[in-house]
Design goal:
The complex is a heterodimer of chains A (430) and B (174). Chain A has 430 residues and is an alpha/beta fold. Chain A has 3 domains: 6-155, Aconitase, domain 3, CATH 3.30.499; 159-274, Aconitase, Domain 2; 282-419, Aconitase, domain 3 (2-Layer Sandwich). In chain A, 33% of the residues lie in helices and 20% in strands. Chain A has 16 helices and 20 strands. In chain A, the strands form 5 sheets. A 5-stranded parallel sheet of chain A has the order 6-5-4-7-8, with helices on one face. In chain A, helix 2 (39-48) crosses helix 5, helix 6 (175-186) runs parallel beside helix 8 (208-216) and helix 13 (315-325) crosses helix 15 (354-361). Chain B has one domain: Aconitase, domain 4, CATH 3.20.19.10. The mean pLDDT of chain B is 96. Chain B has 174 residues and is of the alpha/beta class. In chain B, strands 4-3-2-1-5-6-7 form a 7-stranded mixed sheet. In chain B, strand 3, helix 4 (94-102) and strand 4 form a beta-alpha-beta unit. Classes of the chains: A alpha/beta (430), B alpha/beta (174). Chains A and B meet through strand 2, helix 2, helix 3 and helix 5 of A and helix 4, helix 6 and helix 7 of B.
Chain lengths: 430, 174
């Protein structure tokens, strides 16, 4: 019998039934994540149908993150809807202002994602959580609604695509550059209905933060989920949350290694790359597969630099950016915004002196929020403006009508803030 | 079942994303109806004007990867409140496609050469399209010209279309 992939094993373990043969799988969910943009509509519909219930309040996690603090009456109402609902149903893991952060940063940070889990959220970047060896997928409000009510969701049998990433990344080249490179290789439609499995020595040496950045952008190639195999890095990250469950880290690892693909598993495609010569990458145009090297884009003028989001707003990202900025001022020709993705990241950055470095350089440091990434608050672009951004989408008008977004790593964004135009960071010697 | 018959709007571009279908700044609206004026507001295709070209249309015909990007179900809703319950394309982004059927709407796939044929023969004409869910065909007509193209509608998708969406089905069965 043919071996199985990580995702197939998760599907097998969570299968409720196949109501239409092999066409569709109904899976049991381990976690349903909620935010204030896509959940209130699901809540309203449940109320209207007389089904205002939740399948299991301990498996539902909720956060106000997209627009926080509320910027107007409409966003205040969205927050209120989520808050009232969480209270009404005894959802303990609800994160309101002061304790809230960007969903795909705060939920992993709280230990809510484990290897082998099934996770849905009404947010396309839910694929981030595959970094833990979980099957995590973005869904619409109706799938979310059924997830909240019944703890199930439908998925087609995913096709599997394996990436074997070999070599060693050069200094100044990061997982963001890797994923931008891979999206260019695949195009924005190249992994549709596929699970992208990231393996190889490059992944083995990546931190969980870097793996989350990688998996976060699987959706930009159309992927259902990006996954990495759980290893000791995963166990170390989760240890504060699982130490009561296991006698030792080795025991945890032994348990989690069941969530690794079999060597003889079948794939729709396997792609191997040696990334030892990879350069820092940046997008142009308005699709995430329109990617060039930073070298090719050097000199492009920029009006705003944005460091944050579920892609690159974690502590490692802030350390890299602050390391480049330290002791310098951002260019007079632009403004800079840093948005640490969670309160814990903010506190850590404060302790480590990173916030001071950003402030001294002339950056505005905001509270944790999705805000500017999708043009909702905290740094929306004016018509004709250009933003160098560590976020994940450069769609037309994404950060503000008529604005242009260049996606890049925190290192490139930091160097760009100093130079006033797109440049490689001094860490990259290529 | 929703209406699956009416005038067609041809959008000649691949990778039309959810931010183009309905920009994020309108995601603070709490009713579907409020989305109506903003459908395709940020879509820039030469010759296309969202203010004048959407009214009276019931079906969209487009190229590949329609609905890529965000998970926002506001994208199908914005179509629905404009009377558009069918999109025909080479293929769709996964979440958008599922959202359409979850709402009892249809995302119908055709081969690239069939889509090219539709653009070639019908894009510049006053064209009407009807989806026959039971027979699994798409009928296209403009003046004297008619075509009837068989399409694959999966049993689960058909069930959602007939049930009017996923919530009732799921509540009955799980």
């Amino acid at each position: 019998m043919m071996g199985k992939t990580l995702a197939q094993k998760i599907f097998d373990r969570h299968l409720v039934n196949k109501p239409f043969g092999d066409e569709i799988n109904v899976l049991r969910l381990d976690a349903v994540f909620c935010h204030e943009i896509t959940t209130p509509i699901a809540i309203n519909d449940l109320v209207a149908r007389g089904k205002d219930r939740v399948f299991d309040p301990t498996k539902i996690k909720a956060v106000i993150d997209h627009v926080t603090p509320a910027k107007d009456s409409k966003t205040a109402e969205q927050g209120k809807s989520l808050r009232d609902w969480a209270r009404r149903h005894g959802i303990k893991d609800f994160f309101d202002i002061g304790r809230n952060g960007v969903c795909h940063a705060i939920f992993p940070e709280k230990g809510f994602v484990r290897p082998g889990y099934t996770v849905i959220m009404g947010d396309s970047h839910t694929c981030t959580h595959g970094a833990f060896g979980a099957f995590a997928a973005g869904v619409g409000s109706t799938d979310l609604e059924v997830g909240i009510l019944k703890g199930v969701c439908t998925f087609k049998e995913p096709k599997m695509m394996k990436f074997v990433l070999k070599g060693t990344l050069p200094a100044g080249v990061y997982s963001k550059d890797v994923i931008l490179f891979l999206i260019r290789e695949l195009t924005v439609n190249g992994a549709t209905n596929m699970v992208m499995e990231f393996t190889g020595p490059i992944i083995d040496t990546m931190s969980m933060e870097a793996r989350m950045t990688l998996c976060n952008m699987a959706i930009e190639a159309g992927g259902t989920c990006g996954v990495c195999y759980p290893d000791m890095t995963t166990v170390e990250y989760l240890w504060p949350f699982i130490k009561e469950e296991f006698a030792s880290k080795e025991a945890a690892l032994a348990e989690y290694r069941q969530w690794v693909s079999d060597p003889d598993a079948e794939y729709a495609a396997v792609r191997e790359y040696d990334l030892s010569d990879l350069e820092p990458m940046v997008t142009y145009g308005n699709k995430p597969d329109q990617v060039k090297t930073v070298r090719e884009m050097t000199g492009t003028p920029v009006d705003q630099v944005y460091i944050g989001s579920c892609t690159n707003g974690r502590i490692e990202d802030l350390r890299i950016a602050a390391g480049i900025i330290k002791g310098q001022k951002i260019s007079d020709s632009l403004r800079g915004i840093v948005s640490p993705a969670t309160p814990a990241i903010f506190s850590r950055a404060l302790e480590e002196g990173l916030i001071q470095i950003f402030q001294d350089a002339g950056f505005c440091v905001t509270n944790p929020t999705c805000g500017a990434c999708l043009g909702m608050s905290n740094g929306v672009l004016a018509n004709g403006e250009v933003c160098a951004s560590t976020t994940n989408r450069n769609f037309t008008g994404r950060m503000g009508k008529g604005g242009t977004v260049h996606l890049m790593s925190p290192a490139t964004a930091a160097a760009t803030a100093i130079a006033g135009k797109i440049v490689n960071s001094p860490l990259f010697k290529g | 079942m929703k209406n699956f018959k009416g005038k067609a709007l041809f959008l000649d571009r691949s990778d039309i994303n959810t931010d183009e279908i309905i920009p994020a700044k309108y995601l603070t609206e709490s009713s579907k109806a409020a989305l109506k004026p903003y459908l395709l507001e940020d879509l820039e295709i030469s010759g296309f004007n969202p203010r004048t070209d959407i009214g009276g249309k019931a079906v969209i015909v487009t190229r590949a990867n329609f609905g890529c990007g965000s998970s926002r179900e506001h994208a199908p809703w914005a179509l629905e409140v404009n009377g558009i319950n069918v999109v025909i394309a080479e293929n769709f982004a996964r979440i958008f496609r599922q959202n359409m059927y979850n709402c009892g709407m249809m995302a119908i796939e055709m081969a690239p050469d069939q889509i090219a044929y539709l653009f070639d023969q019908y894009a510049d004409r006053d064209c009407e399209i009807e989806v026959d869910v039971d027979k699994g065909v798409v009928k296209i007509a403009a003046g004297d010209q008619k075509d009837c193209i068989p399409v694959k509608i999966a049993d689960f998708d058909k069930c959602l279309v007939k049930a009017g969406g996923w919530v009732e089905y799921a509540d009955r069965n799980y």
